[in-house]
Each structure stands twice: as C-alpha cells, then as structure tokens.
Amino acid sequence: MNAVHCPCGSGRSVEACCGRFISGEPAPDAESLMRSRYCAFVLGQEDYLQATWHPDTRPADLGLDATPAPQWLGLKIQSHTPLDDNHARVEFIARYKLNGRAFKLHETSRFERVDGRWLYVDGKIHE
C-alpha cells in the first residue's frame, strides 16, 4: 500500500484508512468494512474480498480477472444502519466505467459480525 488517497473517498491515505483493514486489522463497523471492500475491488485484492465475505454466501470466484476490467470512479455511502450488535445494513452507490460507458451500482448490503469480525452477507441491487 502506498500513501495515495484511499479509493473509498475518505480523503485519508490508504494506510490510514482501508489499507489497515486489508492488511488484517478488523473493521470496527459495517461501513468501514464496506469502504475497505470497495477499496479492495479497486486494488484487485481478491483474497481480502473472499476473506470478508460470509462463508454461506461467498462465491468460488469473483471474476476480478475479467477483461475489460471496470474502472472504479468513486464510492458514496448513502446510509449505515446498525440493526443490533452483530447485524447492519449499508446503502451505497459505486460509480464505474466499462468500455467507455459510465455505470453506477446502487446496493443495500447486509453485514454480520461473526467471531468479532464484520462480514459481507449479500446485497439488494436498486434499479
């Protein structure tokens, strides 16, 4: 990881922001995990994405090696809703470009804390 701004949009360096979670520090809440997972998509950190995906819903392959790869443009957290100590929802919009066309992914994701670590469970895509 280098000292460039974190892709999650926090304005901090990768090391001071999502890089520490990608390097193994547990995310303190679901929003931090969501931001770090976006950062991992941008940086191609498939191991981290797999490790932070709930085992009951984790796919065998994420397809990060697909070509052409999307160019991630930005993340906006719409809301972070803790449901209880171990469950939360995060609504976000991630913008990207693919084959010269701009797209957005608008999703409400479910997260669960298992053994002290937040994991992505699944998400509902908004049209």
Short recap of the structure:
By secondary structure, the chain is of the alpha+beta class. The protein is built from three helices and four strands. Strands 1-2-3-4 form a four-stranded antiparallel β-sheet, covered by helices on one side.
Give a description of the structure.
Belongs to the UPF0225 family. This is UPF0225 protein GZ085_13605. Residues 29-123 form the YchJ-like middle NTF2-like domain. This protein is an alpha+beta fold and 127 residues long. It has a single domain, classed as Nuclear Transport Factor 2, Chain: A (Roll), CATH 3.10.450.50. 19% of the residues lie in helices and 39% in strands. The chain has 3 helices and 4 strands. It has helices spanning 19-22, 30-43, 46-51; strands at residues 71-84, 87-98, 101-114, 117-126. The chain has a 4-stranded antiparallel beta sheet with strand order 1-2-3-4, covered by helices on one side. A hairpin with a 2-residue loop joins strand 1 (71-84) and strand 2 (87-98). The chain starts with 18 loop residues before the first helix and ends with a strand. The mean pLDDT is 95.
For the secondary structure, the number of strands is: 4
Helix/strand class:
alpha+beta
CATH class: Alpha Beta
Most strands sheet: 4 strands, antiparallel
Label the CATH architecture: Roll
InterPro entries: NTF2-like_dom_sf, YchJ-like, YchJ-like_M
Protein name: UPF0225 protein GZ085_13605
Pfam families: YchJ_M-like
Family: Belongs to the UPF0225 family.
